[in-house]
Automatic annotation (TrEMBL):
It comes from Massariosphaeria phaeospora. This is Putative iron-dependent peroxidase. It comes from the Eukaryota. One of its GO terms (cellular component) is cytosol. Keywords: Iron, Metal-binding, Oxidoreductase, Peroxidase.
């Protein structure tokens, strides 16, 4: 495979595929609907989209990235069919049908019927990701917004852009965020696929991030290959997730009886310390593709979840080697049977965590309230009454195998890994299953080595909106915006 360092490729790939731009602490996720295609296309062509090559050689003071929903491609006059190579999930959309909503946990208060954006007239066509310094994001957003409106686009949610300047590095519950990220094989050293290539590693084939390259199975996913439309593109999943920070900490304090106990329990629910450190007692391990000590661990030596609960957030969304297809633990067999895969664990690589990684690019929003202040019901200050949450954005190439699998089979699934009655402790909607079976439990082992199970977890996170976007390479963008 040609090395991804090659400049012509790097000049084609949108910059956020390569990095998160943590130094640009202001962000705006501008959601647009095209009302007049003839006006919109020339303006969109004039938008300067930063590439990986630029980000490698220049210190960018602002970054703009562009992605399209299936409805947006149609509004631009592009035919969006599986025959053209588009991902079927992308074509259907995140809120495309009830079965998908059920699978993703988008029911009850999470239901698309309650979303602030994502369906009907509030379904976006285009996402512009704007990143800049805290001091300049508002003016960049305002100017871009006025230009969009002048070019026949409507800004979803009114014509006032919503920006976030919430400090990065911590999500609103107060935990370090952005700690574990997959690395991608930009220099072309991996030969993925094959029966012997099964170990957990953090270095992944380019085809897990970008369309047109071999993936972890060793082959190239279907993608819109004609006219270079899809090569170097990716699918961007965006979910706006509101977090009930006061509700979270006050519930934990009531459960635990005191502040320290609340923090210890929250750390078990996340699966990391507040500062991002692995839970004490996990054995360290050498993992290809990471040199960060905070990520040098596996769950293989903690098969029963005595240190990191089986249902903890980070263990669900990335079970690492705990579902090693050659594993010898009960968890493996439970997971595979839970997911409905038949055959022996030895020969089934499908459940391996490496095939379900996401490159996260989200940002927090809203006022920052420290855990102790949230427990006391104080601390929001000037931001009191304002919502906090996460603009959860991630990149992947196969929405069903990556985002939907993680969200549906691991986060929202009450029977994950042989557990009963518990969804992700942070993200679950807690709705009972058919037959009234509860999903609101969390089980863990406490510091005295006692197994504990708590019931009645409230819903802490509510979906406010979401959509699947196609984020083409720069040549793909030019192709989509050509003519007219
Ligand atoms: C408001 C919602 C959420 C909160 C508060 C949250 C919080 C966290 C925290 C504190 C971590 C550990 C630090 C880190 O590795 O960055 C983490 C990791 C992670 N989260 Fe979430 N998260 C949320 C939503 C989601 C969603 C919707 C997904 C995917 C469907 C997801 C996927 C991940 C992944 C893949 C990791 C890295 C796990 C690893 O490789 O160890 N998160 N999250």
């Amino acid at each position: 495979m040609m090395s991804m360092a090659a400049n012509d490729e790097a000049a084609d790939i949108q910059a956020i595929a390569g990095r998160g731009f943590g130094s640009l602490t202001g962000a705006c996720y501008l959601l647009l609907r095209i009302q007049d295609r003839a006006l919109a296309k020339p303006w969109l062509r004039s938008v300067d989209i930063a590439s990986v090559a630029q980000a490698r050689t220049q210190r960018l003071s602002q970054v703009c990235q562009m992605a399209f929903t299936a409805a947006g491609l149609r509004a631009l006059g592009t035919e969006v069919t599986p025959g053209a190579g588009f991902d079927p999930q992308f074509i259907d959309g995140m809120a495309g049908d009830e079965r998908r909503s059920h699978q993703l946990g988008d029911e009850g208060p999470n239901s698309p019927a309650h979303w602030h954006w994502g369906v009907g007239e509030q379904e976006p066509h285009i996402l512009l990701v704007l990143l800049a310094a805290n001091t300049s994001i508002n003016s960049l957003a305002k100017d871009t917004c006025s230009a969009a409106v002048a070019a026949g686009c409507a800004v979803i949610g009114g014509n006032t852009p919503t920006t976030t300047t919430t400090p990065l590095g911590r999500e609103p519950f107060g935990f370090a965020d952005g700690v574990s990220q997959p690395e991608y094989d930009w220099s072309g050293t991996l030969t993925p696929g094959g029966a012997r290539d099964r170990d957990y590693r953090n270095l992944l084939a380019m085809g897990e991030l970008l369309l047109g390259y071999p993936n972890e199975y060793g082959f190239v996913n279907d993608y819109p290959a004609a006219d270079e439309l899809g090569r170097n593109g990716s699918y961007l999943v965006y979910r706006q997730l509101a977090q009930d920070v006061a509700g979270f900490w006050q519930w934990l304090a009531r459960q635990a009886g005191d502040d320290d106990g609340a923090i210890a329990l929250a750390e078990r629910m996340v699966g990391r310390g507040l500062d991002g450190a692995p839970l004490l007692g996990l054995q360290s391990a050498t993992i290809t593709g990471t040199d960060d000590a905070r990520n040098a661990f596996l769950f293989a030596d903690d098969a029963d979840g005595l240190v990191c609960p089986i249902g903890a957030h980070i263990r669900r969304v990335n079970p690492r080697s705990a579902d090693d297809p050659q594993g010898r633990h009960g968890f493996v067999r439970n997971l595979i049977s839970t997911l409905g895969f038949s055959g022996t664990a030895m020969h089934d690589a499908v459940a391996s965590a490496r095939f379900h990684r996401l490159s996260r690019r989200g940002r927090p929003y809203g006022p920052v309230v420290a855990p102790h202040a949230a427990m006391q019901g104080t601390g929001a200050g000037a931001g009191a009454g304002q919502e906090s949450g996460l603009h959860f954005l991630c990149l992947n190439t196969n929405i069903a195998r990556q985002f939907e699998f993680v969200q549906g089979a691991w986060v929202a699934n009450a029977k994950f890994a042989g557990l009963a009655a518990e969804q992700d402790p942070l993200l679950g909607n807690r709705l009972p299953l058919a037959g009234a079976q509860p999903t609101d439990a969390f089980s863990y082992t406490d510091s005295g080595a006692w197994p504990r199970a708590i019931g009645g977890l409230p819903q802490f996170v509510t979906v406010r909106g979401g959509a699947y976007f196609f984020m083409p390479g720069l040549r793909g963008v030019a192709r989509l915006l050509a003519d007219g």
